[in-house]
Specification:
Elements (H helix, E strand, L loop, with lengths): L8 E5 L4 H12 L3 E6 L15 E4 L5 H15 L4 E4 L14 H26 L5 E6 L12 H21 L4 E8 L5 H8 L4 H10 L9 H12 L10 E4 L13
Parallel strand pairs: 1-2, 1-4, 2-3, 4-5, 5-6, 6-7
The structure holds nicotinamide-adenine-dinucleotide (NAD).
Length: 256
């Protein structure tokens, strides 16, 4: 334990998913008390055994559930230092193929979920000496992948919301940032690959298009989230931190 988050109290939504679990694990390793908030104790990985953090049942689309989760944190600790809004889903469609129900569902989880959890965490975050909110955007909020129209729209909304929250709550000592990953090897990415007939070739093609010739791991993302959550990042706020192996830095590759 290196103690970067010693004594801090953290809540991570989607805390039992691919990225969320890695974040909870790193936070615990750094000395934080961690709540892993998710729909189920297993989350996207299904297996709850040995998962880091105290599990809290939280559907981020429900205001009552957000209030109840914060009441639990308040009764246990009286304050919150770190909120990570990592709950999210992806829908692989063009807008023509997207039903209104799917559109509303992805906005309810990715955008409204970030709004509701943050809104009800703010009174507890104000009691912290160094509060940090970390939202999950995506490189898809800057540049589009084909067939992810609604997802791209939600991530663009999270980027704008992040900046607005940083402006409004910075004077209370609350920093707000978004981490914007590229391809990260989690159940979400695996379900994206499963849409293809030849998963191995697609995975290799995706690796090859990155300047670093690989996609990211949940641990790579947790390293950045951990820094943003820590007091070392005391002057970092209102920013969209892209972590994508250089993917968005290059023009599309061609053989010359
Ligand atoms: N994996 C990637 O390549 C990638 C890239 C860019 C951004 N992201 C973002 O990172 C975040 C984490 O993604 P991941 O790859 O770990 O996905 P994941 O599917 O492994 O985990 C997402 C978690 O969110 C939970 N969740 C879904 N709906 C919920 C709800 N209504 N309430 C509470 N929890 C809910 C799921 O149960 C799951 O455990 C997401 O916001 C995602 O959009 C992921």
């Amino acid at each position: 334990m290196s103690g970067m988050l010693d004594g801090k109290v953290a809540l991570v939504t989607g805390g039992r998913g691919g990225v969320g679990r890695a974040v909870c694990e790193r936070f615990e390793h750094e000395g934080a008390d961690v709540y892993a908030a998710d729909l189920s104790a297993g989350g996207s990985l299904a297996n709850a055994e040995g998962a880091p953090g105290t599990f809290v049942a939280l559907d981020v689309t429900s205001e009552d559930a957000a209030v109840a989760a914060m009441e639990q944190v308040e009764s246990d600790h009286g304050r919150l230092d770190i909120l990570v809004n990592a709950a999210g889903i992806e829908i692989e469609h063009t807008i023509e193929e997207t039903t209104l129900d799917d559109w509303n569902r992805i906005f309810a989880i990715n955008v409204t979920g970030t709004f509701l959890t943050s809104k009800h965490a703010l009174p507890l975050l104000r009691r912290s000496d160094g509060a940090s909110i970390i939202n999950f955007g995506s490189y898809d909020g800057f540049i589009a992948d084909p067939q992810l129209a609604a997802y791209c729209a939600t991530k663009g909304a999270v980027h704008a919301l992040t900046k607005a929250m940083a402006c409004d709550h910075g004077p209370d000592g609350i920093r707000v940032n978004a981490v914007c990953p590229g391809y990260v090897d989690t159940p979400m990415l695996q379900s994206f690959f499963q849409e293809s007939g030849d998963i191995d070739s697609l995975q290799q093609a995706v690796r090859d298009v990155h300047p670093l010739r690989t996609f990211g791991t949940p641990t790579d993302v947790a390293n950045l989230v951990n820094w943003l959550a820590s007091d070392e990042a005391r002057y970092a706020s209102g920013q969209l931190w892209v972590l994508d192996g250089g993917l968005s830095a290059q023009v599309q590759q061609m053989s010359l």
